[in-house]
Amino acid sequence: MTTTFKSPLSGIIPPLVTPLLGNDTLDVASLENLIEHLIAGGVHGLFILGTTG
Description:
Layout: H1 28-40
């Protein structure tokens, strides 16, 4: 599968950490707050399911 972008990716695209309540429970409220905070800070995209380490 080949994907062609109309323009190259650019700007600030930070990797997201995954806030958890336990070993296998997503902290949805914290994730929503994190995403809203990053968007308000002016990021151009979000890099999810990646790594920060």
